Amino acid sequence: MTAVEITTEEQAELAKALLDALNPVAAAVRARATGLPEERMWHADPAEIALSVLSAWKVVDGEVKRLAATAAATAGSYGASYEQLGAAWGITRQGARKKWPEAVGRPAARPGSLELFGGTFDLAADRASGGWHWTAVGADGVSGEAAAGHPTREEAAAHAGAFLAEHA
Question: Please, what is the average pLDDT of the chain?
Fold first, then answer.
């Protein structure tokens, strides 16, 4: 896998989406820090406002690191090597091993269980149909299952993963 590159337009769209997502977090962080209502966030010393936005970016940075670790662990559970993880992240194999020490060497989900987004799912082959089914329990306690069999294990796992993401 080569390093991911995006166009200038994609970068602008990403920046806008991140800023749109950041504004409520920045407003909440600022409101808690000052005791002022969120709608008054921008009526303060510019340095204080910039620092509250910086604090909100720190929160986003932590969430991105957590989501990246989840993606690395998921790839590792499907057999990805540290070399592949490093290539995807643009670092060396050793850097990937240091960044995500538990990502590789986990048992693969063929079939079986996998933890993701704070929930778990189980995959099972349906011998009658030749397809794959999943059952899951999200981090919020909501249970779900495949409405119909999926043709491949990977497709069933993707649908189960989407369910768990919705119920993180």
Answer: 84
- Residue 150 pLDDT class (50, 70, 90 cuts): confident
Query: Of 105, 122, 109, 119, which is closest to residue 164 (Cα–Cα)?
Result: 119
Cβ–Cβ under 8 Å, residues 132 and 155: yes
Distance CA 107, CA 89 (A): 22
- Residue 85, H or E segment: helix 82-89
Cβ atoms within 10 Å, residue 112: 12
Give the model's pLDDT for residue 147.
67
pTM over 0.90: no
68 touches 95 (CB < 8 A): no
How far is 126 from 86, CA to CA, in rounded Å?
A: 35
Residue with tokens 């497709």: 155
* Residue 18 pLDDT class (50, 70, 90 cuts): very high
| CA–CA distance, 25 with 50 (Å, rounded to integer) | 13
> How far from 43 is each of 14, 35, 143, CA to CA, in Å?
27, 13, 45
Q: Judge whether 135 and 121 are in contact, CB under 8 Å.
A: yes
